[in-house]
Automatic annotation (TrEMBL):
Sequence motif Histidine triad motif, location on chain: 107-111
Domain of life of the native organism: Bacteria
Stored Pfam families: HIT (PF01230)
Annotated InterPro entries: Histidine_triad_CS (IPR019808), Histidine_triad_HIT (IPR001310), HIT-like (IPR011146), HIT-like_sf (IPR036265)
Organism for this UniProt entry: Amylibacter marinus
Domain called HIT: residue spans: 10-123
Name of the protein in its database record: HIT domain-containing protein
Amino acid sequence: MAYTYDDQNIFAKILRGEIPNTTVLETDHSLAFRDVTPQKPEHILVIPKGAYVCYDHFIATASDAEILDYTRTIAQVCQNIGVTPDTGAGYRLCSNSGEHGLQEVPHLHFHILAGASAGRMVAS
Ligand code: DGP
C-alpha cells in the first residue's frame, strides 16, 4: 500500500502521552477517548494503537488480533455509555478517510456520536 504514516499527527501524540486526553476505554490494541470538540452529547473517538492512516489501510495491514480488538472496543464503548439500540437510543458510527472524506487527523478513528439525533447523514 502507498500510505505514509505521519507520526506527528495529533493522535500519535496522544498515544505517546504527549497530549492529554479523556480516555473512556483502553485495551491492548485500541484507545477510546472523548472528542475535544464534541458534535453530540456523546462524541467518542476510537483509534487503534498501531500506525494506520485510515480504515482500508488498517484492514489490509493490521493483524487479526488488532482488528478484532478494535472492532470489539468500538462496540464495548457503545455498550458502556448505554447507547446500543437494545436498551438505549442508538448512535452513529462513522470514519472519515482522505480528502473527500474530510479526514482531518491522518490516524484511523471511528467517531461514536450519540445522546441526540445524529441528523441527516450528508448535509451537503
Ligand atoms: P476527522 O475530521 O474525522 O479527522 O475528525 C478528527 C476529530 O478529532 C475532530 O472531531 C476533532 C478531534 N480532535 C482534533 N484534535 C484533537 C485533540 O487534540 N484531542 C481530542 N480529544 N480530539 C481532537
